[in-house]
Amino acid sequence: MGWYNTHVLPRLVTCACGTRPILRQRQKVVPKAHGTVLEIGLGAGHNLPHYTASAVDRIIAVDPCETSWALAQERVRDTGLNVDFHASSAESLPLEDASIDSVLLTFALCTIPNPGQALAEAHRVLKPGGQLLFCEHGLAPDPAVAKWQARINPLWRRAFGGCNLNRDIPALLRASGFSLDDVEQMYLPGTPRFAGFNTWGIAGRR
Ligand SMILES: C[S@@+](CC[C@H](N)C(=O)[O-])C[C@H]1O[C@@H](n2cnc3c(N)ncnc32)[C@H](O)[C@@H]1O
User: Fold this and answer.
1) 62 in contact with ligand 1, CB cutoff 6 A
2) What is the pLDDT of residues 69-119, one digit of tens each?
3) Domains with residue ranges and CATH for the chain
């Protein structure tokens, strides 16, 4: 799995993250980021074109996968944003307490091995009054879809680098001390329902 995970998987995920329905989701949250931004799980940098450049001072990006950073280079250049990359895991952020204005998390909580620890770290580094902007796929509300998610998940996780279909995103956020200030949910059009239930919005520090 080593070569597959290092070279094939990041490119597969890059394709999956570039679809039109997902692009529309990015447009709903990314432009709201401002000040010093922490982007967790940068991937190939699909969010970069959607930032409001005039509102952002700098972006600190973390992702343990260095191949992703290589794949993000073109978008970093094209947008001209000031991106400071750390090949680090979200569960242990190399950042001071209360140093970040906006944390951005898109389609990453599904894959981060310990999402509770990652959110606790996001909470720690966020300034009082700061915002966590997020868009994630996860546990579907319909029992029949949730049942399929549970069935498929073990195989899915192995094939897609640890991605989980059925994490309960609002519950994870609340358990880590966030209040859900402005949240929406829907099945993404053109996406299988087991992989397409999205939750997005703004969470604040409780
Ligand atoms: C499905 S991709 C999404 C990438 C990007 N956020 C996007 O919206 O296109 C998930 C990303 O999470 C990253 N990731 C996995 N484990 C992580 C961790 N412990 N901390 C931070 N990022 C992680 C992966 O390397 C991958 O780039």
Assistant:
1) yes
2) 999 999 999 999 999 999 999 999 999 999 999 999 999 999 999 999 999
3) 2-205 (3.40.50.150)
Name the nearest CA neighbour of 29 among 134, 142, 169. Answer: 134
Token pair belonging to 1: 């799995």
Sheet holding 35-40, edge to edge: 83-86, 56-62, 35-40, 100-106, 126-137, 197-205, 178-187
The confidence score (pLDDT) of residue 1 equals 55
DSSP secondary structure of 37-78: EEEES-TT-TTGGGS-GGGEEEEEEE-S-HHHHHHHHHHHHH
Looking at residue 20, its amino acid is R
The token pair at 98 is: 């209360």
Q: Residue 85 has which token pair?
A: 């990359």
Quick one: how far is CA 98 from the chain centroid? 20
Query: Are the C-beta atoms of residues 38 and 62 closer than 8 Å to each other?
Result: yes
Contact 126, 100 (CB under 8 A): yes
Q: Is the CB of 63 under 6 A from ligand 1?
A: yes
* pTM (2 d.p.): 0.95
Check if 122 has its Cβ closer than 6 Å to any atom of ligand 1.
no
End-to-end CA distance of the chain: 41
